[in-house]
Amino acid sequence: MHSKPTRREITHERIVEVAARMLRHNGYSGVGVADVMNQAGLTHGGFYAHFASRDALLAEAVERAGRDSAAVMTRRIDASRARGQSALRALVDSYLSEAHLRAIEDGCVVAALSSEMPRQSPTLLAPSVDRVRSLIEMVQHALPEGGTPEQAMVIAGTLVGTLQLARTLGANAQGKAMLAAARSALLSQYDPA
What we know:
This protein is an all-alpha fold. It has one domain: Tetracycline Repressor, domain 2, CATH 1.10.357.10. The protein has nine helices and no strands. The longest helix is centred in the middle third of the chain and has 29 residues, at about 55-80. The radius of gyration is 18 Å and the shape is globular.
């Protein structure tokens, strides 16, 4: 039986949720303690009652963002599979969708931050590496029987890189065309219908 969360736990989760959203939208350097606390409706002084440092907050935010986006992706995959699609087709279609193109604040934390991840402190690098590994594992589980870990890495890299480039181009005809081209290439190679 789960006990009801305490007020402190609820506040802590609200701070992490705000930081996770800001992190995906603004990158590591664009998340300030004062801004997070303000958006969470709290005073700056209350921060250290919850976190030892900004990096400790950001590490939790990376983990939270990854769990949240994986849960959204899993729901989309399950819905697509219920319509008869393979797991890989559902994953590729969902990841390289126009909705994900526009959903920077709610989308995949790996796509939002991967170019910045290697330059972070060890405190932030560890959860970032975990998120990359989790994405590769999600792809591995979606591959048809006989799919290899190497294929999962290639597909994950293609998904992330394509989404990053499409977001740079914008949620316009060019960005959407990039998504469509990568979807077609991945599915024709790894999940021909």
